[in-house]
Amino acid sequence: MREETDNTMNEQIQFSASLSSPAFSMQQVISVWVRDPRIQKNDFWHAYIDYEICLHTDSVCFTKKISSVRRRYSEFVWLRQKLQANSLLLVKLPELPPKNPFFSLNNAQQITERMKGLQKFLEQTLQNPLLLSDSCLHLFLQSQLNTSKMEACAAGRTHYSVAQAVKRCGLKRFHSEEDLQKDLSMSCDSDSDSSECRDPELRIKDLAINTAHSTASLDLMGTSQEETLSCSCGST
């Protein structure tokens, strides 16, 4: 009887060791993409850009294996602050692309550089096992909640749980990075004029051109009004 008990304990120890082994970690795949910047308008004077975050994983840390949400820069700032506070300064978090007071919705290069910086931040964050247990990270990546609701949900102050908020998120739109490229190619074949089928760089430039036209139309309404719009967009 003693021998059987010892054998059972040894099997449990070996199983636990295999979960924490490098071989097990290598089997866990977490792929994330930040793409498809879009201009969103709160009202006539205030606009900002948000980005699509696509997640594809087989990690046991995630309830949903494939997801897609949209987030803006200020929400990334909120996430980093929450992760830093929740980790009790035990983790050195990667940096976000710096906030640029002169950031412009008309500048395709600035938009591209920020988008790449946001993706690098998420990629490095997802490499840390300690951060993968943070509810705020899961809500940010896989729910449609805003920052105040994410904070309340993570603290248990909502009638729904973190898992329920994640499950309510919309259905996935892709399966892999290859499928993203294939989807873009198919869109181009079916409709060469569609903005969704173009190269991301070109779509960003289109956004800038469209915004430039909108801004130019404001010239008739006075210089002070243009400055108001520029300030509100640059601080986003």
Topology (elements, then pairings):
Blueprint: H1 2-20, H2 22-27, E1 30-41, E2 47-57, E3 66-72, H3 73-86, H4 108-125, H5 135-142, H6 147-154, H7 162-167, H8 177-190, H9 200-216, H10 223-234
Antiparallel strand pairs: 1-2, 2-3
Explain what you see.
The protein is α+β, with helices and mostly antiparallel strands and 236 residues long. The chain contains ten helices and three strands, in the order H-H-E-E-E-H-H-H-H-H-H-H-H. The protein has a three-stranded antiparallel sheet. It is globular and about 40 Å long. The chain starts with a helix and ends with a helix. Mean pLDDT is 73; it is low at 1-25, 172-177, 182-201 and 211-236.
What are the main properties of this structure?
disordered C terminus; alpha+beta; three-stranded antiparallel sheet; 236 residues; 10 helices
Average per-residue pLDDT, rounded, comes to: 73
> How many strands appear in the DSSP assignment?
3
The largest pleated sheet is described as: 3 strands, antiparallel
**SSE string, helix = H, strand = E?**
HHEEEHHHHHHHH
Tell me the strand percentage band.
5-15%
Individual helix count = 10
Question: What's the overall geometry?
Answer: globular
CA radius of gyration: 22 Å
Please identify the structural class as seen in this structure. Answer: alpha+beta
Please give the order of strands in the largest beta sheet.
1-2-3
Helical amount = 40-55%
Task: For the record, give the distance between the C-alpha atoms at the N and C termini, rounded to a whole number.
Answer: 67 Å
Q: Would you identify the regions where 5 or more consecutive residues have pLDDT less than 50?
A: 1-25, 172-177, 182-201, 211-236
